[in-house]
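Holo prediction. Input below; ligand is cytidine-5'-triphosphate.
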Amino acid sequence: MPWSLHGKKRMFNNKKIVLGISGGIAAYKCASLIRLLVKEGAEVKVVMTKSACEFVTPQTLSVLSKNEVLIDFFDANNNWHNHVALAEWADFMLIAPLTANTLAKMAAGLNDNILLSVYLSAKTKTFVAPAMDLDMYKHPTTKQNLEKISSFGNIIIPAETGELASGLVGEGRMAEPENIIAFLKSYFNSSLPLSEKKVMVNAGPTYEAIDPVRFIGNRSSGKMGMAIAESFAAQGAGVTLVLGPGNVTTANKAINIIHVESAEQMFNACVQQFAICHIAVCSAAVADYKPAEVSVKKIKKTGESINLNLVKTKDILLELGKLKKTQCLVGFALETDNIIEYAKEKLKNKNLDLIIANSAAEKGSGFGGDNNKISIIDKHNKITNFELKNKQEVANDIVNYIIEFLK
Ligand code: CTP
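Structure of the complex:
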């Protein structure tokens, strides 16, 4: 690993990066993005769409990258810019921000500006950092286009949640430059065993609404699932965590967190992520039942007793087991008795590769706390028992087991 003068590792030393900038407000962040890439040792060449120039000036980016910025096929002196040579020069391409318009053109293979010409000519990996308003980001066409370009081998740097240019708050903000760098670093840390793998983890409880102020929930903290997500990321995987309500957080900016509340929201997010992942670990304590009807008004305290009619939620893991193609699917079994027998049943019924059995009755283990004691059972019924450990150590055991299992 190359080192800077200050003794710090420089992740992108001598890496040649083409930065493609399309026309969204987040284009102004490209000034700091270029500075960070250059600080990490990269050489950066910029191609911009004409509309991107309305948000940040090519002159600024040219000064920061110390290279000419390409906007058109011809320069002021009518010299042709060779987009093929630029595409060949690059070790990888990064398109940030990626607008809905440029995304749609990439998905359709359109070529009406130099950014798209470079992209279409590039044989190297392309990373994209989408940026758009929340409704545009949620639109089925956008989702479909992201899936499509992802199926071409492009890597999506997930958009973040926060305040958007429209004043609305939601998912769609371009990942912050620091987070783009963290994402790229974790991707290129290819000495790690899972650097080519995409992982989906679900964690935490779900809340099933009774009325606008009440819900049915459970005591799951999400700590075990978060520790698993962190452990996967530390092994180089691209991790998406579908997380139920609670207070658990992570300092690892490369983990893409999708926040959900109900079992149904978790189901939808997991089914979507499962289609594009290699490994899925379901550690969430999903509610098994939800109120048959949600009262739109707060229920008043009128009678001496109240009956809640509950109906079954969808079993996420069961559904993923049905959808499974080549993914490695891992479930949890939380039991108070007959732990191994019940866990084996779930392994088989839900078409899993592995199940992690833990006891809700074991002292100091399981829900809410910091420790856990597990047994892992594989699809051939081989059982491996582990000692009581803290949840991060347990997570490392699980991830190491999966790495060995995949070999
Ligand atoms: N699970 C799920 N969706 C549900 C219920 C459970 O995906 N609606 C998953 C959990 O995330 C876990 C596994 O199924 O990985 C087993 O969960 P557990 O609560 O132990 O068992 P259940 O299948 O719910 O069955 P039971 O409650 O009868 O033990």
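Residues 263, 282, 284, 286, 288, 313, 315-317, 331-334, 346 surround cytidine-5'-triphosphate (CB under 6 Å). That is the main takeaway for now.
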